Every structure is written in C-alpha cells, then in structure tokens.
Amino acid sequence: DTEVTQTPKHLVMGMTNKKSLKCEQHMGHRAMYWYKQKAKKPPELMFVYSYEKLSINESVPSRFSPECPNSSLLNLHLHALQPEDSALYLCASSQVWGGTYSYNEQFFGPGTRLTVL
Amino acid sequence: GESVGLHLPTLSVQEGDNSIINCAYSNSASDYFIWYKQESGKGPQFIIDIRSNMDKRQGQRVTVLLNKTVKHLSLQIAATQPGDSAVYFCAENIRRGQAGTALIFGKGTTLSVSS
Q1: What value does the mean pLDDT of chain B take?
Q2: How far is the C-alpha of B64 from the C-alpha of A31, rounded, in Å?
Q3: Which residues of B touch A105 (CB under 8 A)?
Q4: Which residue in A20, A29, A83, B41 is a FRET match for B18, CA 20 to 30 A apart?
C-alpha cells in the first residue's frame, strides 16, 4: 500500500465551527506533514511530525491544531477559522525526517478542499 | 526566490514535442531536489529527484538537470503526451534547525499539451 488517504475530500464550515481533517498512511513511514495550498500557488509547509512528535510548526495560527495519535494517523483540528483559511490542505508522509536521512521522498494525499464561510 | 527570465508560469507544447521546465532555487546549501506533478484536484505526485552531488539524473521519459553554479534546476520531458498536462513544481530540501529539513516548493509551471 503506497497511498496516503485523506478525509473528507471537501469540507464547508462556518467561522464558529469545529472540524477535523484526517490523514492515514500504512507504509510504515515515521514522518508526516501538513501543507496548505491556495489556488494557483505552491504547497506551503505547516507542520512536521517525526515519530509522533511535533518537530516543525511554521508559525501556524493556533486555530489550527495538529495531532498525531499514532504512526499511521495525522489529524488537523480546526476551530474559529477565517475565510482566508479556505484552501486545499495536503497531508504527506516520508520514511523518516531529518538527520542523515534527508533524501527521502514525500508521498502526498489527494488533499481536503476546505471552504470557510 | 525565482530568477527573472527563467521561470515561465505556463508552457504550451504539441504532443510529441520535448518539454523543458525551469526552476531557480534559493538556497545554495540545499542538498536534495524533487520535481512533482500536480493534476487538477489531486495532490502532488513524485516524478524524479536529484541529490546535490549529481548534475543529471534520468528516469522514464524525464531528465532532471542541476546547475549548482547558478542555482538552476530543469525538468525535461521527452515526447510529451496529453497526459503530461499538469502543474509542475520543483522543491528544494533545506535545513531546518539542527535536526531536520523542510521541502520548499517553487512557483509552479502549468504545462498544456495539445494533440
């Protein structure tokens, strides 16, 4: 299984809602990532988890809260979002992160298209 | 950032032509580079990678060239097909603190292939 899956595919939420995005991989990867991609722009890194520990937070607002319950799952909890947070949210995984093993490919999921009203 | 004159946001080619997509990267210490293809409604898909100790790498119908002197990366696609139509991103792997790295994506080039 060389796939990263993400649910839901589409999500529409109001600014007062609380919702969660989910990501799953069964490749035995120990590094997982969240990216945000606006229309016609490149993906931008938000968070990196390595061995279920948060390793990078790219100064993301606290209304985005990541969680890595185990090595296969990655969640992104959303609360009090703004319309400008509407974007495609991509999850990725790689074998490991950091150290001397930096030459490893990241596998991306299809993304969740989020619309904040 | 991107060097003016090197990056084209769009590229239109005829089926069967060879395509060349260019990318300028920002950090001379970057040690690993990846080209991704992103089709509409999908996540980025790995095409080919190259380490900084190489200047050329070939895959199936694709070749990546790395020129570290001018911090330039290119992707060559041979015999371009309509299925190659997508947005292509280069990504550089840069150091983040002491422990790890992060992928930084370039602006992307939209390739349109007409038959």
Answers
A1: 90
A2: 26
A3: 34, 46, 49
A4: B41
